[in-house]
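TA notes, week 10

Several of you asked for a full example with nothing omitted. So below is the full record: structure tokens for the whole chain, then the designed sequence directly under it. When grading your own attempts, check the secondary structure regions first.
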């Protein structure tokens, strides 16, 4: 009996992909199981997951204590609307988060995902200014290289060059973009011995140009992850905090990628001793076992809003099973001291990559903080000319890494962000695999055939 022909289209739509390209490449990578930092596909091939799913699987795959917590919660209570009701899991999680969060971030709004948390934060920022009598403050400042999710608000706040609204129309009005602290390619001080903080001065100039009485907030990731793991100079965040304070502008930190230990601190803002007015959370909070996001508010924000109706929410906000997963994940991270481990393993990964690529003709910069590391590829290391990669080049690069049993974020830069439970051997293997693939470029100006 002959096999039926392949369908002309796949019934499942794949995110962020050209659907016909997925079919031409032989279909998606079908993952069947995962343990620790490794996953297996439906053919039995194993890979080190150096992208943590999508920055999410911080505690590793197959953790029985997290799985059991979700099962127990679903047996007891499978749903509770976060309106005039709640589950004990949601209440316990909010209290747990407040104990972890820095400064006076004392109120937590739970939502289904990090992208929905971005929308929530945008609304909260504008509603706050209305509540304190500053109704004209609607303009929001975001940054180049930013990635704030795929909802319409998140896409509007993301760098336009990401093309998240291609073919869909204009972004939301009232958004201005400023430079990010990208030392390797800074238009102001890339070749200087030290950061000039000119990019912070541009934020203040933008506030003045718009009118301080019209600016509501500055949205920024502490370390842009998908945007290239852009680690800021030490002085950047305190200076940006001071600018926002001078003009009564809210500072909103998007820690969806960096939160819960990714950078070697519970929250990336702790590296610089800065507390944002609003903090956006997601991804690692549940370790990938359920979907959950949140916005944490400082006391002055929540107090200004708590006496008013805030007409906003989602059906699955604070889902009991998601909150149970988050509580179990946070317990595991704390019990195993995985935040400290992320710092140590990230330093090891960065060191191994820098050594392996020290003489590479195309590795322009290897940078990182904690378990988020990027390798920026160039045509000329002196001129720092970016290596241009076509879609088929990226496919070949990805296939070469998969042959070496590594899943990474393949673009320019190449990004590695493995789970916090990654072992020394796995760190060394991933660094060696990436270096071997990158080194095949040398002298050829292109990826492996």
């Amino acid at each position: 009996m002959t096999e039926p022909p392949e369908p002309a289209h796949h019934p499942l739509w794949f995110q962020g992909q050209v659907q016909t390209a997925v079919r031409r490449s032989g279909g998606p990578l079908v993952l069947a199981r995962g343990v620790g930092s490794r996953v297996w596909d439906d053919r039995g091939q194993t890979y080190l997951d150096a992208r943590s799913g999508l920055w999410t699987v911080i505690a590793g795959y197959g953790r029985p204590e997290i799985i059991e917590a979700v099962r127990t919660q679903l047996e007891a209570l499978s749903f509770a609307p976060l309106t005039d009701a709640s589950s004990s899991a949601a209440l316990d999680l909010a209290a747990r988060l407040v104990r972890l969060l820095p400064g006076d971030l004392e109120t937590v709004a739970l939502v289904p995902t990090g992208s929905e948390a971005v929308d929530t934060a945008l609304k909260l920022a504008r509603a706050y200014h209305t509540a304190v009598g500053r109704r004209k403050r609607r303009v929001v400042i975001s940054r180049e290289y930013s990635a704030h999710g795929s909802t319409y608000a998140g896409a509007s706040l993301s760098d336009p060059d990401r093309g998240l609204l291609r073919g869909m129309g204009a972004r939301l009005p009232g958004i201005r973009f400023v430079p990010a602290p990208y030392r390797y390619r800074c238009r102001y001080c890339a070749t200087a011995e030290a950061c000039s903080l000119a990019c912070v001065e541009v934020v203040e100039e933008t506030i003045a140009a718009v009118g301080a009485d019209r600016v509501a907030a500055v949205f920024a990731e502490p370390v842009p992850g998908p945007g290239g793991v852009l680690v800021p100079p030490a002085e950047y965040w305190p200076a940006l905090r001071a600018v926002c304070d001078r003009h009564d502008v809210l500072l909103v930190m998007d820690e969806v990628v960096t939160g819960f230990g990714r950078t070697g601190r519970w929250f990336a803002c702790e590296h610089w001793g800065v507390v944002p007015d609003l903090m956006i959370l997601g991804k690692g909070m549940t370790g990938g076992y359920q979907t959950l996001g949140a916005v944490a508010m400082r006391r002055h924000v929540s107090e200004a809003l708590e006496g008013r109706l805030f007409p906003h929410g989602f059906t699955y906000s604070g889902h009991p099973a998601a909150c149970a997963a988050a509580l179990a994940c946070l317990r595991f991270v704390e019990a195993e001291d995985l935040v400290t481990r992320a710092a140590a393993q990230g330093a090891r990964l960065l060191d191994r990559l820098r050594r392996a690529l020290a003489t590479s003709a195309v590795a322009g910069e290897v940078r990182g903080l904690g378990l988020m590391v990027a390798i920026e590829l160039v045509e000329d290391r002196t001129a720092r000319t970016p290596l241009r990669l076509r879609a088929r080049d990226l496919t070949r690069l990805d296939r070469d890494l998969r042959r070496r049993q590594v899943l990474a974020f393949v673009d320019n830069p190449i990004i590695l962000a493995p789970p916090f439970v990654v072992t020394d051997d796995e760190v060394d293997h991933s660094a060696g695999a990436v270096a071997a693939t990158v080194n095949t470029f040398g002298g050829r100006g292109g990826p492996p055939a």
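The mean pLDDT is 94. Use that as a sanity check on your answer.
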